[in-house]
From TrEMBL:
This is Glycoside hydrolase family 42 N-terminal domain-containing protein. Residues 44-71 form a coiled coil. Residues 1-23 form the signal peptide. Keywords: Coiled coil, Glycosidase, Hydrolase, Signal. Pfam families: Glyco_hydro_42 (PF02449). GO terms for cellular component: beta-galactosidase complex. The keyword NAD does not apply.
Length: 808
């Protein structure tokens, strides 16, 4: 029993199923029971009455063979949060401390702690009221819902590009870092409501223990720590899950043998990835754990090869206080020298000319790390940044090869932060495309902002136009799906609900539904949300009790304002996943469409400029609301994928490209492709030297835009080029603004009807007119309710529709 549990039991009444001893309850006199009942909050009494009403209605529905899986989850979360509210009320000091650790809430921590219990009870009443109203509609026959397609937590398998359960696609969901210390068999934590994935990564920042696979497994004498191995092998072979290679720590014995081993460390990688002893240690650990877990269900969702890897080598960057890349080892420097010699084909004079140096040999090359950002756009910046990416890709190639040497069928992915692609900065050593190509699954921790950024000085400009930061989700997913269209996509730490940058104690359920729907529609196959930190008695889990002093200061404040305090949010996550899984085949069909228009992406320009992604996003945003899925091409995509999968490539804001990238674009034209290119693009090589070659149309079509062409001009020309691939289902939107906020996808069915998905990510209700390109009148059915709709209809802010449309 945890240290706060007894107080919680007293405050919340023993008769309320808080897990306290039933024998004590039975000793109560009727007078004591009456007094206890009087102590119950009026809001809780109201919720209890609504629960009784809902349960009675559920019995009626079951008698009519109506699926009530959704209501079962609603009941479970309501009962849990009634219990949680009572714990919070009985332990105000703990809740006040939790709010105090988050600087955004700290000034009002006492007031927030005092009002939280009734806030939670109010939200429980709201979701119950809504649930009763919906079930009433079902019972009256006013709406008809599909039964929930539950995740089979024991039998789900990884297919070619999706998870499969009982012959249908399935989208597993859970929470990252669940209540450390609770057994994996505890059904209060692992169930259909919270999710039931088993995984070894639950202690976020372990030193020498936990189910996460870490450096301390291997002893100096070459043997393995059997107690730590047992924590891994004792994971029940019952539920599917995934395992982490947690590469943050390094044993003292390694550091004694290799004094340089921490040079070039990063925030979540505690050692030099170029160090031969560190590699040897990890090679042995990976082979051992790969053998022990071969064929186990806990690896069905793969091995996570790293948590949020990055090696920012830029001077005065935000990672500097964590000692990230504040120096580099002799191993890293010597590998860089070899890389340069290969890159320059042994031409030292060319390197000296580029760098404005006079090195006598490649073996004498030196560089100051961290590097000054003032050097961006110069050859030395490009060479180091490109090498930093290549060396991290080399590390992950090594890790994966070691695993596959003993377990060739093991799936792998890496928790890549979206910012490594979406932000302008490229000094972090992560080639997002290369790593998505390398691993057998696509991995990341994609996030969104559901309301304004809570950090001073951080932009929330997107809020001027949209209800949430949909673009951060959409553009990242569209890129990853373009790079690896046939791979499963796993978000192993989704920050859709809160993060260090944002949180909202009263998060909109409409936002929750929209963002999870959008991410799944655009490629996300499984997700574990940030984060579940309640123990079954209602108290915060062990790590969040007492004085909190974490290496990452963000963790201490993560509990405040999270979904752990929001019953409406936590319930909605499961409800939207139920609905997505009920329509999993339709979602996959909508997802797996051709992407007729592709934007060309160049890592070369991204490295050399400080606004590449800002400008690229502006074009992407302008094209997103035209009814078809956007895509990307790169040199590798052109060379490795079927070019017939797209119609037109737009080359915008790509002044720096390597000769290999230029050649790939020319080869696309040579085979009949269409390219739209602006006047500034392709003019320089990676070192800023002018390119004399120009693209020629050959068998294709080359549209060279004039100097003055802006994004509107590019958009109009691009849409004209893909006119034949435009959707047959058209939507006209009036949202009261001069810009669009409604996005839709449609797929023609075998019977001639159309499957249509619509999302409104704007602030305003949108007036929509749906029609067919052939002009025929339409019959529309809302697939979520089975009800007919008119062709003119409203879609509220953050609304989601899934429709069946037929020509009359």
């Amino acid at each position: 029993m945890k240290r706060h549990f007894l107080g919680a039991c007293i405050a919340s009444a023993l008769l309320l199923s808080t897990g306290c001893s039933q024998s004590i309850e039975t000793q109560k006199t009727s007078s004591q029971a009456a007094q206890q009942s009087d102590a119950i909050s009026p809001l809780e009494q109201e919720a209890r009455a609504k629960l009784a009403t809902l349960k009675s209605m559920m019995d009626e529905a079951r008698a009519k063979n109506i699926d009530v899986t959704r209501e079962e989850t609603l009941v479970w979360f309501s009962e849990q949060f009634i219990k949680f509210a009572n714990w919070d009320e009985a332990n105000p000091e703990a809740i006040e401390a939790a709010f105090g650790y988050e600087r955004y809430y700290a000034p009002n921590k006492a007031e927030l702690a005092a009002t939280l219990p009734d806030f939670e009870r109010t939200k429980v009443n709201e979701i119950l009221e809504k649930g009763i109203a919906v079930l009433e509609q079902v019972l009256r026959g006013e709406i008809k819902r599909r039964p929930v397609n539950k995740v089979d937590w024991q039998g789900t398998k990884a297919g070619d590009n999706m998870f499969v359960s009982h012959g249908k696609p399935i989208f597993p969901y859970d929470y990252f870092s669940k209540t450390v210390g609770q057994p994996l068999t505890n059904t209060d934590i692992y169930n259909d409501h919270l999710g039931a994935l088993y995984h070894g990564g639950e202690n976020l920042y372990p030193v020498d223990h936990d189910r996460a696979i870490n450096s301390f497994l291997l002893k100096e004498d070459g043997t393995f720590d059997q107690a730590l191995l047992k924590e891994l092998t004792d994971i029940p072979d019952t539920n599917i899950g995934f395992l982490y290679y947690w590469i943050m720590g390094i044993p003292e014995w390694v550091e004694k043998q290799e004094p340089e081993v921490r040079k070039g460390r990063s925030l979540f990688t505690g050692f030099d990835i170029d160090n031969p002893l560190a590699r040897d240690v990890w090679g042995k650990i990976i082979r051992k754990t790969g053998e022990l877990t071969k064929g186990k269900k806990v690896t069905e969702l793969g091995f996570v090869l790293a948590n949020e890897p990055h090696w920012f080598a830029e001077k005065d960057f935000w990672t500097a206080p964590f000692h990230e890349m504040t120096s580099i080892s002799s191993y890293t420097l010597n590998k860089f020298r070899s890389w340069l010699e290969h890159k320059y084909a042994g031409d030292l004079a060319e390197l000296n000319a580029n760098w404005k140096t006079n090195f006598a040999s490649f073996s004498e090359v030196t560089i100051e790390i961290p590097i000054d950002s003032a050097l961006q756009g110069q050859p030395i910046w490009y060479d180091w940044s490109r090498y930093n990416m290549d060396r991290s890709t080399d590390w992950f190639t090594y890790v994966q090869n070691e695993l596959h040497s003993v377990n060739p069928d093991a799936d792998t992915h890496i928790k890549i932060m979206p910012r490594m692609f979406m932000d302008n900065v490229r000094s972090g050593g992560i080639d997002t495309e290369a790593l998505a190509e390398l691993t057998t699954m696509v991995g990341h921790d994609a996030k969104s902002l559901g309301s304004k950024n809570i950090r001073p000085g951080k932009s929330s400009k997107w809020l001027e136009k949209y209800a949430y930061y949909w673009g951060y989700v959409a553009m990242f997913h569209d890129f990853m799906e373009s790079v690896a269209p046939d791979k499963i996509n796993v978000n192993s730490e989704s920050h859709f609900l809160s993060s260090g940058q944002w949180r909202d104690l009263d998060t909109r359920t409409s936002y929750v539904r929209s963002v999870y729907w959008l991410a799944t529609l655009l490629g996300m196959d499984a997700n574990t949300g940030w984060f579940w930190a309640r123990d079954p008695d209602g108290s915060p889990e062990d790590r969040l009790e007492g004085e909190l002093d974490f290496f990452d200061p963000g963790l201490a404040g993560a509990y405040a304002g999270s979904n752990n305090m929001q019953p409406h949010v936590t319930n909605e996550v499961t409800q939207v996943m139920f609905d997505l899984n009920s329509f999993s085949e339709e979602i996959i069909e909508l997802r797996e469409q051709p992407r007729p228009l592709r934007m060309f992406y160049s890592e070369t320009t991204a490295i050399n400029t400080d606004d590449y992604m800002t400008k690229s996003y502006a074009l992407y945003e302008s094209l997103f609301f035209e009814g078809f899925p956007m895509g990307f091409v790169t040199k590798n995509i052109i060379e490795k994928q079927d070019n017939a999968q797209w119609d037109t490539v737009v080359v915008y804001n790509n002044p720096y490209v390597s000769d290999a990238e230029f050649a790939a674009l020319q080869s696309y034209l040579n085979t009949g492709g269409t390219i739209i290119v602006d006047a500034q693009s392709l003019s320089l090589n990676e070192y800023g030297q002018k390119r004399s070659d120009k693209l020629v149309a050959a068998k294709g079509k080359l549209v060279q835009l004039p100097d003055e062409a802006n994004i509107t001009d590019i958009k109009q020309r691009a849409l004209a080029e893909v006119a034949d691939a435009m959707p047959e289902v058209m939507i006209k939107e009036d949202n009261g603004e001069a810009f669009k906020t409604t996005t839709w996808r449609s797929v023609k069915q075998a019977d001639g009807s159309y499957l249509v998905n619509i999302l409104n990510v704007g602030h305003n209700t949108a007036q929509l007119d749906l029609s067919l390109a052939n002009g025929k009148p339409v019959t529309i059915t809302n697939m979520m309710t089975s009800n007919p709709m008119d062709s003119h209809f409203e879609l509220e802010s953050e609304g989601v529709l899934l429709l069946s449309v037929s020509a009359q």
